[in-house]
Amino acid sequence: MHLNIKKEILSSSFKEQAEFVSQYIIENSEHFPTLMDLFFSSDTFTCQRSSWVMSHCIDKDITLITPYLGKMVKNLSNNVSDATKRNTVRMLEKVEIPQPLWEDCLNHCFHYLESHDEPIAVKVFSMTVLYNLSLKIPEIKNELIMIIEDMMPYGSAGLKSRGKKILGKLRKKIS
User: Is 9 among the domain residues?
Assistant: First the structure.
């Protein structure tokens, strides 16, 4: 069976199809590049839908994303949708980020964390990416602690919960 991935992603019954499409791609990984072409599409709707499927695919097989990491981080410099940001940063919290991408990831994630306009999920995932990078770049720990502490009094329950966990880990590493 050959699935028309774009047609399925753009289907009106997307929620029902998304899991089916992600399972199809996991079982037929040679089609993952097709999904990623849709992810990098200039059409926001196509990009959002494919980012959701991509996220589910990498939940099952994180290695699929490795060849696309650089392009995905670079894509964050474009004016991407919240869904694309969310799914990209969610993916970044799960992978070993290669050293050449550290600076861009730091810049994006610190920006998202400090922005008043970013959705909570983007901030929460950014916090974890920054914590993971702080294990490799210890000099960012103090800045991350200050930003999280500043956010805590005004944050949502999800932001406070993640912030508390990460602050605890960061403080253990410093002392």
Answer: yes
